[in-house]
């Protein structure tokens, strides 16, 4: 940040960064490394996540073992007792018993459990969740469905449950999920997206890229060569010990022999794909090699596939 404030704009990218930073009013203060014990605020996990987060407060979802999530949903079996421990829901239940139809026209008690049909867009009756269980329910739903986003979590909860400020509470909790912030790729685009190279029939275009390095497996493989047909979306994976040009050529020979030979291969500008040896190989096979623009991985179809795969593998 200090460099961007003082440097002379030397290329369009730095100019865009400087223009973007002008939207913020900030001062850069130096802090000694010995005094900066916790540099990342995300590591300060709040031990109590059962209450509503106050305004302008950093709130964090505690990590919960995925194997125990299904068991922890069992608190809904005692929902009738929990509802009567909540003062707001208890007043509604007492009003229903006293036949006060004006205050309780959108609520009904069935088998001792309080339901609501307040939302006309959702015809089914929804269970009213007491305040002491709301944050736990949001966290468990978010983790149980593999750390889905804010809107998907909110829609899942809205179908069966009801409590006030559901969207804002869901947004506050999921935005502070440490796993989502460290594993998921940002989906905010500041530049005009570049269109991918299209193909009209199978074997017209084959996208290719490496995924790794990964922890060594049974045969000491640390990389995966991903091949995707842009039309049929057929995916072929080739594990490799090292990401080398020779390994790519061997995998492509096997692919051409057992499956098919594409007209064009699309890849990034990695040295394995730009080397003279690789270019001579594809030319000898009668295949055209196309490289995507530098720093624009969205031109390659499998970039989205690898990003999704990386997110799932990092979460687990």
TrEMBL record:
- EC number of this enzyme: 2.7.7.49
* Listed transmembrane segments: none
Q: Which SUPFAM superfamilies match?
A: Ribonuclease H-like
GO MF annotations, alphabetized: nucleic acid binding; RNA-directed DNA polymerase activity
UniProt-listed GO biological process terms: DNA integration
Pfam families in UniProt: Integrase_H2C2, rve
* Protein name stated in the entry: RNA-directed DNA polymerase
- The scientific name of the source species is Lygus hesperus
